[in-house]
TrEMBL record:
Entry keyword set: Kinase, Membrane, Transferase, Transmembrane, Transmembrane helix
Source superkingdom: Archaea
Signal sequence coordinates: none
Putative sensor domain location: 35-238
A family per Pfam: Sensor
Protein name as catalogued: Histidine kinase
Lineage: Archaea, Methanobacteriati, Methanobacteriota, Stenosarchaea group, Halobacteria
Molecular function per GO: kinase activity
Length: 252
């Protein structure tokens, strides 16, 4: 089906509208928000421990002391990846298969080291663990913006008349911009000019505060849909980096 056909299909448009409007009432939306919130502290812990472990292990490997440090670091990454699979399945609904670790099939220290170094599941787990910090920072920023903007606008009728409170669009000075389109025509120039001027809008009445609250509903709706979309992207990334095999595994 072409994109134009999909956009002009009433049932498809209705499904999209229902999905957007139902975001505040879906458990999966708040599960995605919980996943993003947890990603910030977990991402910091993963990144610090992994980078420190790898740095010490590589720098001390010439003295053989770094070999067990590297092994312990990679073992910790594997354990973390197992927990992250469960977290992604539970909170994001990700369909991730359990990998078959090559190191469990090898015998001997040399064979196990070679298996760990050539196992794509280990490298995928390492990539995901290191990327968790980026996910956590982005998720924390997104949740902070959504909660602060949505909550402040929704609660405007409760504090708009409080002493010292300023509600609305407060600019230090008016913004004035002139937009012009000029077309040369023989010896003349024909053009159209528009002047756009933005000034502060401060809410001082209950109807204005209620209007701000309506903007808050819209902002919350948009924000929760963005959170839901971020959860979907995190699920796909978890499936790519942590997935192995083709058969889906469920924890239910």
């Amino acid at each position: 089906m072409a994109l134009s056909d999909a956009l002009s299909d009433p049932p498809a448009n209705r499904r999209v509208a229902e999905a957007v409007l139902s975001a505040p009432f879906r458990i999966r939306t708040y599960a995605a928000a919980a996943y993003l919130a947890l990603s910030f502290p977990l991402g910091i812990a993963y990144f610090v421990c992994t980078v420190v472990g790898l740095s010490l292990g590589v720098s001390l490997s010439v003295l053989l002391v770094g070999v067990p440090i590297l092994a312990a670091t990679l073992g910790g990454v594997v354990l973390v990846s197992i927990g992250e699979r469960v977290l992604a399945r539970r909170l994001l609904g990700a369909d991730i298969a359990d990998p078959s670790w090559k190191v469990t099939e090898a015998s001997g220290i040399a064979d196990r080291a070679l298996a760990a170094a050539t196992d794509l599941a280990v490298w995928g787990a390492l990539l995901f663990v290191l990327s968790k910090l980026i996910i956590g920072v982005a998720g924390f920023t997104l949740l902070t913006v959504v909660l602060s903007v949505g909550a402040s606008l929704l609660a405007a009728p409760l504090y708009y008349d409080a002493p010292g409170a300023s509600v609305g669009l407060i600019l230090p000075e008016p913004i004035r911009r002139e937009l012009s389109v000029v077309v040369p025509w023989e010896q003349f120039e024909v053009g159209v000019s528009f002047i756009v001027r933005l000034t502060s809008w401060e809410v001082s009445t209950l109807p204005g505060a209620l209007l701000m609250s309506l903007f808050g509903v819209l902002a919350a709706l948009v924000g929760l849909n963005v959170v839901s979309a971020a959860g979907w992207l995190c699920a796909r990334w978890a499936e790519f980096a942590l997935g192995a095999g083709t058969s889906p595994v469920s924890d239910d």
